[in-house]
Amino acid sequence: MEGVKQGTLYPSSTVKQIVKRLNELYKSSVASCRSLSTRLERFFSRKHRLMDQISSITAERLLFSHTVQMVQTAALDEMFHQGEASVLRYHKALLLMEGLSQLLTEQEDILRVSKCKECIERRLTALQSGLCV
User: Fold this and answer.
1) In a domain? residue 79
2) Which of 62, 78, 117, 127 is most exposed, with the fewest beta carbons within 10 Å of its own?
3) What is the rounded CA–CA span in Å between residue 113 and residue 71?
């Protein structure tokens, strides 16, 4: 107690060893936290890229489905002798397919969209040349 009152406390070798060990544990904890932080950053970065890809795939699928529905509606317009409306819908569908073909990266998807575009183009040509009335 006398040293406390005088402000002249000196650590014993045991206290020094404990402080040294605590310092080592602290540095180890900091290194582990940094490592975990780096790994988490990489994980979230990969997750974000994956979510972007999934969103893109979903958007492409929605666009394709909408375009197919548009072609079906155009065919119904054609059946009910609404030629101008069907031509307009076929044109819009063709533009959407063209835009979609610019976005796609998978070869199978590109081929599928190309086939759809060809069918729409043939139908438009037939309608515009007056072969179908």
Assistant:
1) yes
2) 62
3) 13
**The one-letter amino acid at 109:** D
Provide the domain count of the chain: 1
How would you label 99-110 residue by residue, b for 16+ Cβ within 10 Å and e otherwise?
ebbeebeeeebe
CATH number for position 53: 1.20.58.80
User: Residue 112's domain spans which residues?
Assistant: 13-128
Q: What share of the chain is helix, strand, coil (3-state, %, to 5)?
A: 85, 0, 15
What pTM did the predictor assign?
A: 0.58
Look-up of token digits 């650590």: 11
Evaluate whether residue 2 is within a structural domain: no
Nearest residue to 82 via CA among 92, 90, 74, 93: 74
Q: Identify whether 3 is part of a domain.
A: no
